[in-house]
């Protein structure tokens, strides 16, 4: 036979596609839903993450911030100004303490000044004022904006005047919130927001003045790599400055975004694999149905390469059609999801539908289709022309002949090569989707390992089932025995189907369990009782009274937090004097003014990263140090830090580092980097810091009540800033749940199509049973038992591996794993019900098949 041209092969392939539209619907559906979930979920999650990153930037008011505790030198100032040459914007923020009085009063009040350039500040976010007005109108000239607590303490109103240094300024507005409130300094006293020019007019800034200088930077493009590069540059010529980028402004947001990104990337990869599984099962079923046609073509002289060419073209066409439909659905998902979630989230992510995303979707759909249909396509080489004349299901060749053994080894080798190519392709796709070679390799290795174990487990379950039926042959009802035996009947791909369904169940359950664990953690970070009002300078004799007042105050929720603080300094670390320490972007003079806190139990919002926390009552001097501080001081577990004891310089505290901790930044305890047992600080002078949660609109009442009874206690109101933080975390939580649910739905549809693809194999069995006198109800019972057993076994195996996978992943994400017994049980029942339902939705017409229609083809 002459070589078959690609044009002829395409013509034959397209004719077969048109003649078997119903059969190919499962293939197209699997590819389309897989690509749709992939492009839609990935596209929306990328757009949403970019939107959230803007919100994260607003908590810093810029892309980066450099905090200094002294004015930069001339050389440093030149280098700072040089950074703006490439389009980077920079604005300084000066923070300092000063004294202010009402215009006609001599009673001074310690205040916290914040001087900014209203033409540039803030780069991200807005300053909310009352009455509402632009920041340029509220500050500058003779106008300033102040905190509500200043009005309370000086008994002033908007429009009144205050004396600040040599300047008399008018209160134009009250500051309700400012974007960088959480990342700025928590200075004691009410705050006053003014311009840099006004600060000069006050003449408060002089040589040697204690003022904090913060520089905010905004890059021309929102690029994380550019942010990291600028951060490295700043650390190089500002060694004494603390450099922070927008990802480090709040640990809760950083952890939430990192974890959410990991889960959403997994969702995309799961959608890819589930689509590929559906394609493989559907194409395998189709090719098995076409064995007669393949045998006829070979009888007429066609070679295996000719037949492979036809079905390769057919596979490409199916992949392109499914990919095109999937990309259209994915774009639809990206269009619809923001509309559905706009009211719920309060934000609408920008729509980014790039040509590269469409091309990536089409290529992904085509590549996965080709990869996962390779093994069944290779089986075409083993189809013999004699099949059309001798239609036995079992292999008719001699099992032990040398030729047959060689053929099996050769066939197995080809399948092994095909499997290796599949894994290589999945690695490339996973690496591209996750933007990480490590993630791509780990995902592929894990997928290959799980698939092998699932195949072995499926084979073992079928072997046990066969032994069980042999031992209980006489005691089981014929219908039950027949239904169970159907799982390992000749020609039935039960092991492959069990592995495919088990893999699908495992991946869907893994996404669900991971999303639930992440959402649970996010809910802990968004509790409405987290502190949003902080108290400073509470005397030991006032702790009980302040706590009682907070509990009785309207609008205050939850239990107030009170932590003892001992002022101290670091004398030496591991025998090296503090003045000789090599620190990373941390001014050495800060070591002379640190805060120690005593605790006997793990404080809320704190986790041990390394080491072990002490037990209550342990007299041994030891310290738990914050992770970032440990990196700056270069201390490890077992290091010794020598702290100066206030009031007793002859008896310093030599504490061993036994734990490195990490705080979520949302509790009063997060303000302390050094935790020690109570016994180590007993008898030292102490002052208390506090935290409580109050309704944002009731904070003013709380401030007035505290000032009336405890005028020396300073109240720092970050309620509005905490609400912004809480809303961001809630948005992350909702999107993770929604996209995980969408991916799970897509996976269920794909699994259903894979199960439904077996209906064409049942026609012959139904005909044989009907010819032997079986009724429809008997056949229905046999099939129901088969479907239920298939779902039960696949669900059980899949859920076992899902829990093992989730346990490992959660440990990497620093999240706790909890076995959800009822959820697993309900999931098992749901998988079994889905398998039975899907099997019958695809097979109910098979029961109406007339025996004569099939027997005439024999």
UniProtKB/TrEMBL annotation:
Bilayer-crossing regions: 24-44, 263-287, 308-331, 351-374, 413-433, 445-465, 495-519, 734-758, 779-802, 822-842
Q: Does the keyword Transmembrane apply?
A: yes
Membrane topology type: Multi-pass membrane protein
Q: What is its main location?
A: membrane
**Keyword terms of this UniProt record:** Cell membrane, Membrane, Transmembrane, Transmembrane helix
Subcellular localization is given as: Cell membrane
Q: Which GO terms describe its cellular component?
A: plasma membrane
Q: Which residues form the MacB-like periplasmic core domain?
A: 26-209
| Superkingdom to which the source organism belongs | Bacteria
Query: Where in this chain does the record put each ABC3 transporter permease C-terminal domain?
Result: 266-382, 738-851
Q: Which PANTHER family match?
A: INNER MEMBRANE PROTEIN, MEMBRANE COMPONENT OF PREDICTED ABC SUPERFAMILY METABOLITE UPTAKE TRANSPORTER
Report what the protein is called: Putative ABC transport system permease protein
């Amino acid at each position: 036979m002459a070589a078959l041209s690609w044009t002829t092969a395409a013509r034959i392939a397209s004719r077969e596609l048109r003649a078997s539209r119903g059969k190919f619907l499962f293939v197209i559906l699997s590819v389309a839903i897989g690509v749709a979930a992939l492009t839609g979920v990935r596209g929306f999650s990328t757009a949403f993450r970019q939107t959230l990153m803007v919100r994260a930037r607003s908590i810093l008011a810029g892309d980066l911030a450099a905090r200094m505790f002294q004015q930069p030198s001339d050389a440093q100032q030149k280098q700072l100004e040089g950074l703006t040459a490439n389009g980077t914007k920079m604005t300084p923020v000066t923070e300092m303490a000063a004294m202010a009085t009402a215009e006609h009063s001599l009673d001074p009040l310690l205040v916290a000044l914040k001087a900014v350039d209203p033409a540039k500040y803030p780069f991200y976010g807005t300053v909310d004022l009352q009455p509402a007005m632009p920041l340029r109108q509220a500050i500058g000239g003779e106008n300033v904006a102040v905190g509500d607590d200043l009005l309370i303490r000086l008994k002033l109103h908007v429009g009144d005047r205050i004396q600040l240094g040599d300047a008399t300024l008018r209160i134009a507005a009250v500051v309700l919130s400012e974007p960088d409130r959480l990342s700025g300094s928590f200075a004691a006293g009410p705050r006053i927001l003014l311009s840099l020019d006004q600060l000069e007019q006050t003449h408060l800034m002089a040589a040697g003045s204690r003022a904090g200088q913060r520089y905010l930077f905004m890059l021309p493009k929102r690029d994380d790599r550019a942010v990291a590069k600028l951060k490295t540059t700043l650390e190089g010529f500002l060694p004494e400055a603390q450099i922070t980028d927008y990802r480090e402004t709040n640990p809760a947001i950083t952890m939430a975004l990192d974890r959410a990104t990991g889960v959403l990337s997994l969702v995309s990869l799961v959608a890819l694999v589930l689509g590929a599984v559906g394609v493989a099962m559907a194409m395998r079923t189709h090719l098995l149905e076409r064995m007669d046609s393949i045998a006829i073509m070979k009888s007429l002289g066609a070679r295996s390469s000719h037949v492979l060419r036809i079905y390769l073209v057919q596979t490409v066409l199916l992949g392109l059609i499914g990919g095109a439909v999937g990309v259209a659905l994915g774009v639809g998902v990206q269009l619809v999801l923001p509309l559905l979630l706009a009211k719920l989230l309060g934000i609408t992510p920008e729509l980014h539908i790039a040509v590269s995303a469409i091309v990536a979707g089409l290529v992904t759909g085509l590549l996965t289709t080709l990869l996962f249909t390779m093994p069944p396509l290779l089986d075409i080489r083993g189809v013999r022309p004699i099949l059309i004349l001798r239609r036995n299901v079992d292999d008719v060749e001699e099992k032990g002949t040398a030729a047959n053994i060689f053929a099996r080894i050769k066939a197995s080798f080809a399948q092994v090569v095909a499997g290796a190519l599949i894994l290589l392709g999945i690695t490339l796709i996973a690496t591209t989707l996750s933007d990480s070679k490590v993630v791509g390799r780990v995902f592929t290795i894990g997928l290959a390992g799980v698939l092998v174990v699932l195949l072995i487990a499926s084979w073992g379950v079928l072997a046990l089932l066969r032994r069980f039926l042999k031992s209980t042959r006489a005691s089981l009802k014929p219908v039950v025995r027949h239904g169970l035996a159907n799982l390992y009947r000749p020609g039935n791909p039960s092991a492959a189907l069990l592995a495919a369904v088990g893999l699908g169940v495992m991946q869907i359950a893994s996404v669900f369990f991971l999303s639930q664990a992440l959402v649970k953690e996010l809910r802990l970070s968004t509790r409405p009782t987290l502190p949003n009002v902080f108290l400073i300078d509470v005397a030991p004799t006032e702790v009980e009274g302040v706590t009682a007042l907070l509990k009785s105050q309207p609008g205050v929720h939850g239990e107030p937090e009170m932590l003892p603080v001992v002022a101290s300094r670091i004398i030496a670390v591991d025998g090296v004097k503090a003045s000789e320490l090599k620190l990373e972007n941390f001014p050495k003079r800060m070591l002379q003014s640190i805060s120690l806190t005593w605790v006997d139990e793990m404080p809320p919002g704190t986790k041990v990263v390394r080491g072990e926390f002490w037990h209550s009552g342990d007299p041994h001097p030891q310290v738990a140090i914050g992770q970032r501080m440990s990196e700056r001081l270069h201390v490890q577990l077992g290091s010794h830090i020598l702290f100066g004891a206030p009031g007793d310089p002859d008896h310093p505290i030599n504490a061993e580092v036994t734990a490195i901790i990490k705080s979520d930044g949302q509790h009063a305890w997060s303000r302390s980097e050094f935790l020690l047992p109570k016994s180590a600080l007993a008898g030292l002078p102490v002052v208390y810091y506090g935290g409580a949660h109050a309704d944002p609109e009731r904070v003013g009442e709380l401030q007035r009540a505290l000032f009336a009874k405890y005028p020396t206690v300073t109240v720092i109101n970050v309620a509005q800033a905490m609400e912004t933080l809480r809303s961001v975390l809630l948005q992350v939580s909702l999107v993770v749940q929604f996209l995980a649910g969408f991916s799970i739905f897509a996976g269920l549809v794909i699994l259903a199509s894979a199960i439904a693809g077996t209906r064409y194999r049942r026609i012959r069995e139904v005909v044989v049973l009907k010819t032997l006198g079986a009724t429809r109800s008997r056949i229905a019972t046999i099939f129901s038992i088969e479907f239920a057993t298939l779902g039960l076994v696949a669900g059980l195996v899949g859920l076992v591996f899902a829990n093992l996978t989730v346990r490992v992943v959660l440990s990497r994400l620093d999240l706790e794993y909890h076995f959800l017994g009822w959820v697993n049980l309900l999931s098992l029942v749901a998988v079994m019900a889905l398998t039975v339902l899907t099997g019958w939705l695809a097979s109910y017409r098979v029961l109406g098949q007339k025996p004569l229609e099939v027997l005439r083809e024999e």
